[in-house]
């Protein structure tokens, strides 16, 4: 069942990402969708913190993939500069079966790659204020349902 959470600031979006990182298990796939400036990279920065990654997390828009080492490896992919055909030609399937955490920005451009189970996270403004974002968590598969369940009753740190 989907869950929606309203973030009131980039700091809150990072806090959500940290919680995701703390809950993450090897092989998790997080697909992020949302327009420019919606907070996808901000969420991944928090995810990296939750995985114990000390390095600052940059958007991989120009390099497609960045790899970070923490409690688990984080494979941060960004398809912003690619179309669907180019995404399919890159041979990125190895990241989807890896034993780390795979977070993909602009995931809508690689839909033919996705396995049956993943966590889809959509970020949007939806008539909220300039700094607020609506994050919609849509689990596909039992393990992701458990991750989303852990967010019920979420309170900001």
Description:
By secondary structure, the chain is α/β, with parallel strands linked by helices. The protein has five helices and seven strands. It has helices spanning 10-23, 40-50, 84-89, 93-96, 142-149, and strands spanning 3-7, 29-33, 65-68, 74-78, 101-105, 118-124, 133-140. Helix 1 packs across helix 2. The longest helix is centred in the N-terminal third of the chain and has 14 residues, at 10-23.
Itemize the secondary structure elements and their pairings:
Layout: E1 3-7, H1 10-23, E2 29-33, H2 40-50, E3 65-68, E4 74-78, H3 84-89, H4 93-96, E5 101-105, E6 118-124, E7 133-140, H5 142-149
Parallel strand pairs: 2-5, 2-6, 4-5
Antiparallel strand pairs: 1-7, 3-4, 6-7
Residue share in β-strands = 15-25%
Read across the widest sheet, the strand sequence of neighbours is: 1-7-6-2-5-4-3
Which stretches are low in confidence, meaning pLDDT under 50 for 5 or more residues running?
Answer: none
Based on Cα principal axes, name the global outline. Answer: globular
Radius of gyration from the alpha-carbon trace, in angstroms:
14 Å
Count of individual helical segments: 5
The rounded distance between the terminal residues' Cα atoms is: 24 Å
As a percent range, the share of helical residues equals: 25-40%
Largest sheet: 7 strands, mixed
Total beta strand runs: 7
By secondary-structure content and strand pairing, the structural class works out as alpha/beta
**Averaging pLDDT over every residue, what do you get?**
91
Which sequence of SSEs, written as H and E, runs from N to C?
EHEHEEHHEEEH
